[in-house]
């Protein structure tokens, strides 16, 4: 599942954006939607990887049996989306470059699985090093 989110992150980077990708699956592993951070490409601060995947998954009658997979720990905005729609499992590629709302999600009963993917860590780490102002804008520190 992480491979889908990672491919999205790389697509975002190729488009000139921030390399964060996400995907939503059902419990059987069926892909429902995928997406990537498009803040730069669309000039829209609300298009994070998780929100893009969520939108692309389309309307679901319930999210209580879904899995959100993301290359990076979700920010507060995306953590709120997970809680709002009761997504019970979030698979995180990495939380080294940014820990986001991981602890808060866990405190509220969400199962967070951090894979500590070296590929995810390196991809975003290199981006942050090369684009600190854009990164700080993305996480609300700009």
Proportion of strand residues = 15-25%
Query: Major β-sheet, in short?
Result: 5 strands, mixed
Query: In percent, how helical is the residue content?
Result: 40-55%
Q: Record the strand order, biggest sheet.
A: 2-1-3-4-5
* Average predicted local confidence, pLDDT: 96
Report the order of strands and helices: HEEHHEHEHEHH
* N-to-C span: 32 Å
Structural class: alpha/beta
Overall description:
By secondary structure, this protein is an alpha/beta fold. Helices cover 43% and strands 18% of the residues. The protein contains seven helices and five strands; from the N terminus they run H-E-E-H-H-E-H-E-H-E-H-H. The protein has helices spanning 2-14, 39-42, 49-57, 76-84, 102-107, 118-130, 132-138, and strands spanning 21-26, 31-36, 66-70, 89-92, 111-114. A five-stranded mixed β-sheet has the order 2-1-3-4-5. Strand 3 (66-70), helix 4 and strand 4 (89-92) form a beta-alpha-beta unit. Helix 6 (118-130) packs across helix 7 (132-138). It is globular, with a radius of gyration of 14 Å. The mean pLDDT is 96.
Record keyword descriptors for this entry.
7 helices, about 140 residues, 5 strands, five-stranded mixed beta sheet
């Amino acid at each position: 599942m992480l491979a889908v989110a990672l491919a999205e992150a790389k697509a975002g980077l190729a488009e000139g954006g921030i390399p964060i990708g996400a995907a939503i699956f059902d419990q059987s592993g069926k892909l429902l939607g995928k997406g990537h951070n498009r803040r730069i490409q669309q000039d829209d601060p609300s298009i994070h990887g998780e929100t893009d995947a969520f939108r692309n998954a389309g309307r679901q009658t319930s999210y209580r049996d879904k899995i959100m997979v993301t290359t990076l720990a979700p920010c507060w905005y995306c953590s709120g989306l997970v809680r709002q729609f009761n997504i019970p499992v979030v698979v995180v590629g990495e939380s080294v470059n940014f820990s986001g709302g991981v602890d808060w999600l866990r405190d509220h009963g969400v199962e967070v699985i951090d894979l500590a993917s070296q590929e995810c860590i390196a991809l975003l780490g290199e981006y942050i090093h090369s684009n600190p102002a854009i990164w700080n804008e993305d996480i609300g520190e700009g």
